[in-house]
Amino acid sequence: MSEARTARTPVDTSKIAGWGVDADPENDPTYPYRDRSRDHGLSTDWQRPTQQRSDVEVLQSIEYKHFPAVYGTTVPPRGVSGAIRRAAFRWSESHWLHWLMLMGADRVNVVEGLVEDLARGKVPNVPAEMGARAEWEHNRQGFLTKAAVFAGVSAGVVLLFRRSKG
Amino acid sequence: MLAMDYRGPYRVRLEEKPMPRIEHPQDAIVRVTRSCICGSDLHLYHGMVPDTRVGSTFGHEFTGVVEELGPEVSNLQVGDHVLVPFNIACGQCHFCKQSLFGNCHEVNPHATAVGGIYGYSHTAGGYQGGQAEYVRVPYADVGPMVFPDWMDPDDAVLLTDVVPTGYQAAEMGGIQKGDTVVVFGAGPVGIMAARCAWLFGAGRVIVIDHFDYRLEFVKAYAPAEVYNFKELDDVVTFLKHTTDGLGADVVIDAVGGDAKGNALHTLFGNKLKLEAGSAIALHWAINSAKKGGIVSIVGVYGPTGNMVPIGNVLNKGLTIRANQASVARLLPRLIEHVRAGHIDPKALITHRVPLEDVADAYHIFAAKLDGCIKPVLVPGGA
Ligand SMILES: NC(=O)c1ccc[n+]([C@@H]2O[C@H](COP(=O)([O-])OP(=O)(O)OC[C@H]3O[C@@H](n4cnc5c(N)ncnc54)[C@H](O)[C@@H]3O)[C@@H](O)[C@H]2O)c1
Ligand SMILES: [Zn+2]
Ligand SMILES: [Zn+2]
Q1: d(Cα B301, Cα B310) in Å, to the nearest integer?
Q2: Which residue ranges does the record annotate as region Disordered (chain A) (predicted)?
Q3: Residue at a domain's end among B280, B305, B322
């Protein structure tokens, strides 16, 4: 630690009366989970790892000054949800809008997932995805209640649909 | 290869996915042998973490065998059986140099505030998770650790997150000998935090939850005094009264954004998503701490904001400490504790589920069915 950690400042600290007289290395609320002894005054420059390269679209927080060396390349932004995600990254992490748009995109993405499944000719087995078998085995009462609610709602929808047609 | 696939809130299934590839010279490819489901995965499963994309594979607690190595990896060999810390970390940035491996600055383009975590949404870097047959492991010289021969893989897989997180929760509490420690949450993390509080010299350990089966477990395992908050009129007043009217020296939040117990927080935090999760456990933690005391947060919340009584933090002069656990920093010490019999990680595993049944495993763990404490997924070939 020591001098090397001192922030860059246009002020000459040697001219400030009493500079550092109460500095107390014991007063470290981050002990022991931040180990500054390993931070040999390296301040904010470090030897960057090799930069990962890929063709996958990766969105970046505008708060970064550099692009992190390594990143995940799963599920790049696509479709309407992707467009919303791209737009969200115009705002910093400090903006609620950034996160609210991402949450909105997540909801849109669920619909896109359903459409994709159907387009592949696959009807998703939603009860199985939600663990219906486990519910049946370990929470029969819950299973029956949910099944009853589901049946009721479906019957209601069918009725409404018939009415509006008739 | 087969991998867990997220389809939307409460919906997951198994899918055939492309094999992961070496994408960076410091990558490894690992064949997964065990992979747990964590309370953190439930925040994803409930749709609470922004930028959780449909088609993602979750899973940040896994062990596996090294199958392939990038040209810059020198500490591992093909065939090594490794445990992989849940934090992805470069080992050389400003933060890694201070052992803050959960706060690496070279792993996550999507957010500066969040480090890199396997299978934990794009907000944590967009990495594939380990609830799969194979997984890409970046910075393979930094995180993965060949675990000792004598160690059971079931212990090893819990060293990737649960044990270090519980331990760091206690460590951040700055527990002094004789301190009264209250732990909110009797999930795997809270159970481990209660166990570790003794290692730091706690004089009294109290655990709060609303599932009796979990409270029974931790009562014997930690051991600890346990109370069901549903059976108390007011958990904060109860805790004050049982600590000479002063409150606890150290309070640990091992619950996070899926906390139950307050309708307003459930509505705002979980249903409407206007808060970054329900913060009622943290609210209780702040209010039941002694003046001048310490609140240690390991329960996870989203990136927006939560309603918490920050005025009480001020008036009571509390110190708040929080972080993602820095797994690689703690591993050497924790391995000693396992060897010495101070910690028995695998005792937490209640369910061993084939990867194919991932949807049922999620439901059982999320709904706390069948006495579930910790489920581990085992891929077919493992
Ligand atoms: N900081 C980290 O590095 C880190 C690592 C792992 C997990 N976590 C977080 O730790 C938390 C717990 O994880 P887990 O795997 O034990 O999850 P879990 O879901 O198994 O356990 C949470 C427990 O909290 C209980 N609970 C709910 N509301 C409560 C309340 N108001 N008061 C007291 N208890 C309450 C639940 O009944 C449950 O038993 C999660 O938020 C998870 O994301 C953090
Ligand atoms: Zn975890
Ligand atoms: Zn780093």
Answers
A1: 16
A2: 1-53
A3: B322
Distance separating alpha carbons of residues A32 and A34, to the nearest angstrom: 6
A69 contacts in chain B (CB < 8 Å): 24, 90, 106-107
Residues B229-252: tens digit of each pLDDT: 999 999 999 999 999 999 999 999
According to DSSP, residue B160 is labeled T
Domain that holds residue B194: 162-322
* Claim to verify: residue B133 and residue B187 sit in the same structural domain: no
List the single residue in A32, A113, A139 with the smallest CB-CB distance to B369: A139
State the distance from the centre of ligand 3 to the C-alpha of A83, rounded, in angstroms. 30
A77-121 pLDDT, tens digit each: 999 999 999 999 999 999 999 999 999 999 999 999 999 999 999
pTM: 0.95
The two three-digit tokens of residue B100, written as one number: 């803050």
Say if CB B160 and CB B102 are below 8 A apart: no
What ipTM was assigned to the predicted interfaces of this complex? 0.93
Same domain? B301 vs B177 = yes
Q: What is the CATH number of the domain that holds B203?
A: 3.40.50.720
Nearest CA residue ID for atom 10, ligand 1:
B299
Same domain, B303 and B361: no
Contact (Cβ atoms closer than 8 angstroms) between residue B356 and residue B177: no
B239 and B356 part of one domain: no
